Sequence to fold (526 residues):
Amino acid sequence: MRRKHLTPIYLSLAAAFGVLLGIVISRSNNANTFINKGGNMNLIDKVFYLIENNYVDTVDINKMQVEAVNNVIDKMDPHSEYFEPEVLEEVNEDLQGSFEGIGVTFRIEKDTVTIISTIKGGPSEKVGIKAGDRIVYVGDSLIAGVGINNNKVMKQLKGPRGTKVDVKMYRRGVPELLDFTITRDVIPTYSVDVAYMINETTGYIKLEKFIATTHKEFVNAVKKLQKQGMQKLIFDLRGNAGGYLVEAVDIADEFLPKGSLIVYTQGEHRDRQYIFARRRGMLEDTPVTILIDEGSASASEIVAGALQDNDRGTIVGRRSFGKGLVQEQFDLGDGAGLRLTVARYYTPTGRCIQKPYDGDREKYLYEAYDRYNSGEMFSADSIHFADSLRYITPGGKTVYGGGGIMPDIYVPLKQDSTEYFFNKIVNASIVFQYAFDYSDTHRDELLKYGDEKNLDKKFRFTDTMWNEILKEAKKKKITGTEEQKEVAKTMTAQLVKAYIARDVFGDEAFYPIYEPLDEVLKEALR
Fold:
C-alpha cells in the first residue's frame, strides 16, 4: 500500500519547495559498519555518564543522546541525518522498489481514507476492492471521522507478507458496509511515472525518483517506446529529488559512449573516485532533451550534468536545486541509522554544483523563495554566475558550477496577469478538489470512455461545471477580471480533464492530457 504523490501541478511556494531533501546514497561495502573504538571515555561519554548517575531527577538518557546527535548533525550540513529505527525502516523502504502491504493508493478525503486505485494483480484488487471505496474500519478500529492521518493508516494496513487484515468499506450506492479480508503481499513501487509517445517520433519518459529498480524500469520503458517508433526522447526529471547514485550512473550510461566520464566524487576521508560509462548505451544515437526545474536535485543533477558536460543532448527548464553532496548510510546496531555526507560529487568538467549553506537549514531548503524575489524564476537575465565558477565543455559550451545545473534553454514562469485567476484557483486546490469529487460521483459513466484518449476527445467541460468552480472561488474570496476568468475557464477545462483521467484511469493518464498546459514541455518539443 503506497500513497502516490497526488499534489496538483501548480503549487504554493511552501508546498513546492519545503520538501526538497534530494539524496544521493552510495551503497558501498563499508557503509553498514559502526565502529566502536573503545578505550578511555571521551567527553560526551563522561557527560552522559555523570548525568545518568548523578542528576537530581530521573532522565531519559537515550532521548537526550538522540537530541544531542541531531543538534550536532544539524550544524554540519543540511543532508546528513540521524534516523530512529521506525523512521529508518520507512525511508529505506521508499527506495527499495517494493514493500509489504495491501496494494492500494489512497487519499484522506473529508477525514475518510478513500481508495484512489488498486495495484493491478495486488491483494486488494483480488478481493474486489475498487477505486472510490472508503475504509471505515480496520479490524475493530473505526478510522473514518476520527482525525486519521497517513502514518496511522499505513501502520494499520502495512504488514508482513502472508498476514491478513480485515477491513469494512463504504461503497457509493451500496446500503451496507462491505467486508473484505486482505492477505498482504509484496507490492512493487515504481519510479517511472509515465512513458508514452507524444507524437509519431518523440517519446516521453517522466521519472519520479531514483530507487533500486529505476534503471530496470527505465530500460523497459525505452524498449517499449522504441518498438512504437521512438527516434527522439524527452526525459523529464522535473521535481525528481534524487535517490541512489548507482541508478543515476546506470541511466547516464545509456546515453553516453563507453569511456565517457559521468561523475567523480571526493571527500576528506574518501579518495577521488571516477565513474565512467562502461558499455554501449541503448540511447547513444538518440537525440535527447532533459527537463529540469528547481525541484530537480541530487541524482537528477548527476544525470543532467553528465549529459550537459559531455555535449550530449539539450537541457530545458529552470536551474536545478543545487545538491552536490553524497551520503553513505551507517547501521548503528539498534535499528537506527546515520546518513552521513562523506563526499562531494563533481560533473565531468569539474563543476561542484552544491549551493552554499551557512548553517541555516530552513533558509537552505527554502532558497527557491530567493529565486522568486530576485526575479530568476521569471527571467534568466536575473541569474549571475561568478567567473571563477565558469567551465568549458569539450564542445566549447560554457557551463557554471556553484549552485545547480543551469539549463541550455531557460523557460521562465509566466508573468502574464491574465492567468492570475487561474493560478489562484489552482493553488487553492479548487480545481483539484472539484475534479476529485466529480470523478468520485460519476465514476461508472467516466469508465465508459475506456481510456484517457477517448475521455480527452469526448468529455465536455460545461458552463455548469465552471459555475460550480466559480462558486467555490467566491467562497474563498478569490476574485478576478472577466478577461482573467475567460482565460481561466479554457485552462481549467483542460486541467479538470487531466485530473479526472488520472483519478479514473491511473497516473499515466494525466500527462497526455496535461500537455497543452505544460510550457516547458512545449518548449522542448519546439
Q: What stands out?
A: Residues 1-22, 27-39 have pLDDT under 50 and may be disordered. The chain has 19 helices and 23 strands. The CA atoms of residues 203 and 226 lie 8 Å apart.
